[in-house]
Amino acid sequence: DRTQDIIDAAREAGATGSTVPNQARGEGINPSNTFLGLSIDSQEEVILFLAEEHMSREIKEAAAIAWEFD
Questions:
Q1: Kind and range of the H or E element at 57?
Q2: 16 C-beta neighbours (distance < 10 Å), count
Q3: Residue-by-residue pLDDT tens, the chain, 70 positions
Q4: Strand partners, 48
Q5: Model pTM?
Q6: Maximum CA extent, the chain
Q7: I want to staple 19 with a disulfide (CB 3.0 to 4.6 A). Which of 40, 47, 48, 70 is the partner?
Q8: Integer distance in angstroms from the first to the last C-alpha of the chain?
Q9: How many Cβ atoms from other residues are within 10 Å of residue 14's Cβ?
């Protein structure tokens, strides 16, 4: 899965720990869509990494490549 690919890439780049909180969701400027009064939200993945500051750029770049960010 993509989340595990990113965690693996960050670990290879030097991250010493990671956390993936469950049930992450975002709230934007505009209200979310509803259907019959129920909110229609997509679940989002949030990954937190623990790393030394001097390694953060390399870890961020490795995660971006793994997730195929532009």
A1: helix 56-66
A2: 12
A3: 888 999 999 999 999 999 998 766 666 676 666 767 666 666 677 899 988 999 999 999 999 999 887 6
A4: 19
A5: 0.67
A6: 50
A7: 48
A8: 19
A9: 15
